[in-house]
Amino acid sequence: MPEVSTKPYLLRAIYEWCTDNGYTPHIAVVVDANTRVPMQFVKNGEIVLNISFEATSGLKMENETISFSARFGGVSRDILIPVENVIAIYARENGQGMAFEAPNPATALSAAEQQEQEESAPVLSSVPVSEPEKKAADSESKGDDDPEPPKKGGRPVLTRIK
Questions:
Q1: CATH code at 7-102
Q2: Which portions of the chain have biased composition (kind: Basic and acidic residues) (predicted)?
């Protein structure tokens, strides 16, 4: 029988110490393909999560995974984190806790996977200006050097571009 890592036991112990002392436990996690977190909150391949009783619902700290539900921007999300991806657990109030080695790079997102995620994200591009709009802009720019400032208040106007 393979030996179970001490890491999940240490995570549970620090979590319990934080809650017993009235601190807010946070975990820092390396995000990879096996991690289920809201990607818009991931920075530099990592995310920090509040795992306090007040911030989570159904927290389960098992030997292989940490899972719970939490609200992000008012929307409930199911979170799943492999224990091997946790790089730190600490109390927000004083920073005391424990850091762990980062998972080996084989499990982290490869450069190709990161590029694929970036490519699948929506991209903004400029829309060419039509001839009538160009002429109107040219005639306005030839007029006064002191254009009329935009009017404040009133109803906003929606311009439909086809």
A1: 2.30.30.220
A2: 131-151
